[in-house]
Design a protein that fits this description.
single chain, two-stranded antiparallel sheet, 51% helix, 8% strand
Amino acid sequence: MSHDATISIDGVMIRPRRRDLTAEERLEVIRAQCDSSLKYHTWALKRMPSIPEQAEHVREVENGRRAVAMWLAYVEGADDVDSALSAVDAIIQRYEAAPDWQGWEPGNCSFCGERPVAAWFQGPTFRTFVRSSAEVRSGEAWLACAICLSLVEADDREGLAQRGARRPAGWASEGAEAITREMHNEQFWRPRDRG
């Protein structure tokens, strides 16, 4: 979640901490998001099995990667559709050749937004976790950094809500802790308690 995002949870808006970002700062936020997304897409495409059942999903991920590369082309200086399109393949090749995607793991902690992720709680019950994204065998997961993992294991729901309300991306706002607590309860704790 970028520090300049505004999201809505149950109709309550969480406002960005800063509204005075310069044009350069906004471009850097977009560039960082494109970078993370391109790493994710490259990582996903390298890990997807090449079996016929995955063909449609592979196409979707590849189309998503091309769209993000197009946005990055504009951030990097393209000034029209033709120049952006001409840069897409070079950007994708640059990410495929970059060594940093290979050790890269997707995502931030679902509770607090920190990196690196230490555990992937597998849905639908979120009662068990694995230590690597490659081990996830579920269609859904809640990610946890080392600190949040220890809070989950201690069943410290208040500690998680407090930590989540102080996300590094600047979520802190009036009512953020209550909103975070309700989101954790609805999406993580209730399925876990029922499991």
